[in-house]
Amino acid sequence: MAIKKIAVLTSGGDAPGMNAAVRAVVRTALGRGVDVYAVYRGYNGLINGDVKEMNLRSVSDIIHRGGTALYSARSPEFCTEEGMNKAVDTCKKLGIDGLVVIGGDGSFRGAQDLCRRGVPCIGIPGTIDNDISCCEHTIGYDTALNTCMEMIDRLRDTSESHDRCSVVEVMGRHAGYLALNVGIAVGATTILVPEVPYDFERDIIDRMKKTAATGKKHFIIIVAEGIGRVEELAKRIEEETGVESRATILGHVQRGGNPTVYDRVLASRMGNYAVELLLSGKSKRVVTIQQDRITDFDIEEALKMKKSFDSELYRVAHEISI
To answer: Does residue 251 sit in the same domain as residue 275?
Structure first.
């Protein structure tokens, strides 16, 4: 079947670089003579018909912007049979022959459901957590790393000035990739991640005391969101060490900001590749990057994969942080 019309949407949590991916999808498709529609506010937009035809200028000056120009929203209705049928009806009504979905695991499950109902879909991984198992780097991850590093560097300035301990929570409910790499970049004394069980006395208090014995008087503890309880940790640290301790939750500032060069280029490559897959008759695929090569996996296979945690990097992080 010849592809004449495609649509693109962003879903789930926003990630810097999503706009670059949207731009690449639109420009690639139009350049191949294919009409392109933007679906606003994720799967909600597909259900409600919040769809607009795009032209070359529709995506001008968005490559440098964070967030998503197509907006995003959670869609409980899409999880129902009625909601999915409404989304399929929108595609049929507009004559959409394929859909590019930019988001995370939840977004890909939605794309999987649409594929099963006859709507060809290609997924592009956009999430700052970098927790898509088949993909080495997701869109937004590099920008989030740099944002966290810059924010924590600023916290370090005031921690050093007051001989404090800063306990900082970064995003990563089920994955510690962001925490681990940021922790190395800022020279954290301890990094706590969901993948590695920790002991409060051994991994925090003892490490702080050992470091203090060498003359250091300020400390940074990085905590992944999945560990949580940073206020409680800061209180316990101060009680046991006598070091004034402050908790900081970086929160949604990690999602914002202009995407880095890496994320803009990665997103552009992935958006271009996604359109090529649709035009070649492919469906139910996730675009990924492996060893700097853009490739693709079956969505069902991708959703079953488990991403390994770099235990060696975790070891290095703590060996060099004393």
So the answer is: no
What CATH number does the domain containing 19 carry? 3.40.50.450
Which range of residues forms the domain containing residue 147?
A: 142-255
Task: Based on the residue annotation, tell me whether 203 is a catalytic residue of this protein.
Answer: no
Residues 65 and 109 in one domain: yes
Decide if pLDDT at 279 tops 80: yes
pLDDT tens-digit map of 71-104: 998 888 999 999 999 999 999 999 999 999 999 9
Closest of 12, 183, 1 to residue 96, by C-alpha: 1
Counting the structural domains of the chain, the total is 2
Tokens of 250: 């970086």
From the list 14, 35, 113, 129, the catalytic residue is 129
pLDDT in tens, 125-138: 999 999 888 899 99
> What pTM was computed for the model?
0.94
